[in-house]
Specification:
This protein is mostly beta strands. It contains 6 helices and 17 strands. The chain has 2 domains: about 190 residues, Alpha-Beta Plaits (2-Layer Sandwich); about 80 residues, Immunoglobulin-like (Sandwich), CATH 2.60.40.10. The chain starts with a strand and ends with a strand. The structure holds iron/sulfur cluster (2 copies). One iron/sulfur cluster binds next to α2.
């Protein structure tokens, strides 16, 4: 049986919030019986954009991660409801029944991702429904995907085996896999959000002037082991990304056939710009 999955590319999100606004446009004031009661005007972010700023000094970047209901295959919200008022459809989509779940405020805290919101007026837990009401009419993508200008979202209705092959091939990740919730929302380039980098700038003296060095070879090492290699760009900059926070001691070795060598030690707690390395 084919089921729905969503792939979110963190590297493409520009924090425009179109996806959040489109979802609100779809649901605020609109009732979709059997799928979702109207979303209130204030207080609900069925799709929320989280921001992560990394680095310091001359090397800072920001990443944005859209977050929503993961339509988990082992969903704590379904277990908490316990009576079918939250249920998984055959196509993988998790629905909070807008009639049967009335008064069930306890379901809100069952979601470890904070994806469920409480509608005080209707006394109802609510969340993003993957636009199941539209998919059931033949739509191929939810509205968030339709409205995103940079193509962050890609919804796929495929067999689980096919999805797992895509996950493996594209090295997709889910949020908090240690919880065992088995999300159907996958992330590409999640390292931009939850990993660290070591960056720096290579310079050298030439004709009495200190300038940036293009195309120096930069090696990231741990002890004697080389972990990765990079080359400096036109600004002399290099960056090693995808490193774990608090992962200890590294060294950076730089060389260029015309300008010589330099090195620096780095103790990595969080993303670091290690400044200029002057070849000589
Ligand atoms: S993300 Fe939360 S609300 Fe969505 S299915 Fe998983 S546990 Fe339920
Ligand atoms: S619409 Fe796309 S680019 Fe804009 S915030 Fe949402 S995911 Fe990011």
């Amino acid at each position: 049986m084919k089921k729905w999955n969503l792939i979110i590319d963190v590297a493409k999100c520009e924090n425009c919030n179109n996806c959040m606004l489109t979802t609100r446009d779809e649901h605020v004031g609109n009732d979709f019986p059997g799928y979702a009661a109207p979303q209130p005007v204030h207080g609900h972010n069925w799709i929320k954009i989280h921001r992560q700023v990394r680095g310091d000094g001359a090397m800072v970047d920001a990443a944005y991660r859209p977050t929503t209901c993961n339509h988990c295959d082992n969903a704590p919200c379904i277990a908490k409801a316990g009576d079918g008022s939250v249920y998984k459809r055959k196509d993988g989509i998790v629905i909070i029944d807008p009639q049967r779940a009335k008064g069930r405020k306890d379901i809100v805290s069952a979601c470890p991702y904070g994806a469920i919101f409480w509608n005080e007026e209707l006394q109802l837990p609510q969340k993003w429904i993957f636009d199941a009401h539209l998919l059931d009419q033949g739509w191929k993508q939810p509205r968030c995907a339709q409205s995103c200008p940079t193509g962050v979202f890609r919804a796929l209705c495929v067999e689980d085996e096919e999805m797992q092959a895509i996950v493996k091939k594209d090295r997709l990740e889910v949020l908090r896999p240690e919880l065992g919730t088995r999300p159907r929302v996958y992330y590409r380039n999640l390292f931009r959000f939850n990993k660290c980098f070591i960056g720096g700038t290579v310079v050298a003296e030439s004709d009495g002037q200190v300038d940036c060095v293009l195309d120096a070879e930069v090696v990231l090492k741990r002890g004697d082991a080389a972990l990765a290699t990079a080359r400096s760009d036109a600004f002399g900059d290099f960056k090693f990304d995808g490193l774990d926070a608090n992962s200890g001691e590294y060294s950076v070795e730089v060389s260029h056939p015309a300008f010589g060598k330099a090195n620096s030690g780095v103790s990595l707690t969080d993303s670091r710009y290690i400044g200029t390395l002057r070849l000589g």
